[in-house]
Amino acid sequence: MKFEVNGNEVFASTGGRPFDKKKPLIIFVHGSGLTHMTWVLQTRYFAFHGYSVLALDMPGHGLSGGKSLKSIEEMADWVNDVIDAVGYKEASLVGHSQGCLVTVECTARYQQKIKTLSLMGGAGAIPMNPELLNLAENNDPKAVDLMMDWAHGPAGHFGGHPVPGLYHINTGGMLAKSRTIKETLGVDFRACDNYKNGFVAAKKIKIPTLSILATDDKMCPVKEGKKLADLIEGSKVDIIDNCGHMMLLEEADRVLKVLKKFITTNYPPLNS
Amino acid sequence: MSDKKVPNPKTYKFDTLSLHAGYQPHKNAGSRQVPIYQTTSYLFDDVDHAAALFNLERGGHIYSRISNPTVGVLEERVASLEGGTAALATSSGMSAIFLTVMTLCEAGDHLVVSSQLYGGTVNLFRLTLPKFGIKCTFVKPRDTEGFKKAIQKNTKGIFGELVGNPGNEIMNMPEIAKIAHDAGIPLMVDATYQTPYLCKPFEHGADIVVHSLTKWMAGHGSSMAGILVEGGKFDWMQNDKFPTMTKPYEGYHGLSFAEEFGPTAFTMKARAEGMRDFGPCLSPQNAWNVLQGIETLSVRMKKHCSNAEEMVKYLMGHESVAWVSHPSVPDHPDHELAKKLLPNGRGSMIAFGIKGGKDAGVAFINNVKLASHLANVGDTRTLVIHPASGTHSQMDEATLKFAGLSHDMIRLSVGIEDIDDIKNDFEIGFRAARKPRLVSNQ
Q1: Which helix (H) or strand (E) holds A136?
Q2: Which CATH class is domain B297-441?
Q3: CB proximity B262 to A under 8 Å
Q4: What's this model's pTM, rounded to 2 decimal places?
Q5: Is the pLDDT of residue B399 over 90?
Q6: In chain A, which residues have their Cβ closer than 8 Å to the Cβ of B263?
Q7: Distance between CA atoms of residues B96 and B91, nearest Å
Q8: Is CATH 3.90.220.20 the right assignment for the domain spanning B14-294?
Q9: ipTM of the complex
């Protein structure tokens, strides 16, 4: 669906079901340079099971208007603005990669509104390789190719997408190239590199939090994810083996199973 | 991730993908070979799981008409080799073309189509699709400007074979893609003759690629199969020409394929709607057979192309041959374009004219011993046919002429046998062609 936030049109997938304000809201926040489509194997389940879902296209990404936001802090405030814009007083947040930085910061800032926090492939900081950053900021498609290489684990490199016929390395690459690379991935990488508040923000979080990490994640290794989780009071950690950073596609079913249990327990659906 | 020199991406290359893409042994009991899932249907964990699969909430298999794990490996493998986002395998190349058109078009729509196509494809576009209310305008493949002129308000796409069957005329794919994209419509290319080893159409602007996998991709000539592959770049939401891609679809709870699946929307719709409603599914056994062929695709294509270039030289110097058409020939009108679009080789299809016309052609075909006379191309074995009396025999004189066919034309699909044996066999054919009556009375 489309709606406005701060004067710009925003697109969010509702998981194939009508947006229903009577149902509890789950907001999904994508990673660097990507779009709402990375969440298709999680959002549709929740949308069909008692939740209203918004898988956002961040400003300047996917089908959303405006320009990419330049800092994680701005993105965190913007997610809070989304909750207001759609007329909700509370929501659960789910983030992937850069989306984890955004949702951690958002939760720390607006703790009273956020009911659960689910982090996939998250870390407290995501410093960028300067050369990779340079490639993305110079609109070089090699930045996307490298990201797709590093974002998939050894098993994921062979394919084996849960949806028959889809080849996820090429699909992910196409998503990241769907808009101008320097205006999406370049801005996002710079925002990640600049963000230094992750560990401070994590300490402020007092709501149910889940970190889903993957053994073969080269971009946000398990060690870094655990470091973040350890700072969040009562945080749960689930580790998916034989899987890389793109766990939400590489091991969509296993991720959904863990996510489903955590969210439905801590933030029950309508008519549960 | 910081402070290290950036290497080149280490995603797997063509030859590795040919052997491995789409398959993870550890998820299949450690089976090194892709298992043949010879089953019609799949157990649901519970009612919730069943509903989730039907609602496209999660990936998985329901019924082998829609998808099958063995077929799924083939689909991913071909998508990876083409550089595409997704693929859908079908029971034949023709069903892949039909499914592509029916996913794209509705009654009242129009297509611009290259005139130089396999005869069956010509008949689909000329005679069968009009029965569904879909009309076509044919344009000669080299008439790039003609493609532009033929576009109408209701045109939904351009379709062609990259290298036309059987005359070897080459579409200027980059320019025709630009014409299509300027009009807000996709370019669909049948790249059967090239396979992804010789040409990656998505790199030259194509949006949908179809293959008859029966041919070079499989190579062994044992199994019928087809596939459509999606490039993922085409923006279905850029205009209002494709409401079935962009508007809520009643058949899946108001799903908008373009919004929900973006770069894989076309394949998702082709499967969810086309495969569900038309059902031209590929059998797991045939998918497995094709996978065996794809494992050696690059090795075979190199030999096909080197043998073809040898045969071109041989035929060009032969007293019984009137003309030879192959993109490797320097005076072929598309020689330069072929170098650009087909950098790894110009393919193994040769058309040549035999001196003595139709009678000589018939005598040649009837007398070769090694080359097989049959209605297929892209087998590892050398194949020959006389199109005017075979593959294109259902066309009238005018259509034959428009398709660039002549009565003296022999279509040769060069195999990977020893090149001297192929030449020796052709000598037998040519000797007979020079004395057609004598040979036919023997």
Answers
A1: helix A130-137
A2: alpha beta
A3: yes
A4: 0.94
A5: no
A6: 37, 171, 174-175, 178
A7: 8
A8: no
A9: 0.94
